[in-house]
Design goal:
The protein has five helices and five strands, in the order H-E-E-H-H-E-H-E-E-H. By secondary structure, the chain is an alpha/beta fold. Strand 3, helix 4 and strand 4 form a beta-alpha-beta unit.
Length: 171
Amino acid sequence: MDHPGYMREALQEAQKAYGLGEVPIGAVVVHNGEIIGRGHNLREMLADSSAHAEILAMREAARFLGDWRLNDCVLYSTVEPCPMCAGAIVQFRVGMLVYGVADPKAGAVDSIMDIVREPRFNHRVEVVSGVLAGECAGIIRKFFQELRQKNKTVKNGEMAELVEGARLEIE
């Protein structure tokens, strides 16, 4: 399998999320060498906390196959899936998960817990991690740096307005 090639496709999806101001995470589902599902975060745009890249990609793949079971599929995600997405990966019966960069705050595959390989569940997922990790981390890092800078600028601007407003009240 061309893990780097498919991860680049997932990164293209992440770039779409980035362009929308969403956390830039992207995912694709591959079946027999063909991408059958794509997704990027749309949580803010849809006001839907379940609109994560992985879930959207798996839903599209299931519609394409006409079956909720994705046993013969590989899910590529730019970031280690969260608990919700990891649970959905098990429920969709995904055969293999390939992800780019670990998520030490919310990762539910390797970082905080391991939902997809939990032996008490009736399905376990093969996992490959670290594919194009630098590129996957880079887009996330850039997004949050820009967001922090934007928030800092807004706060400084609000402070200037408050100071100016206070000055007007004193006069």
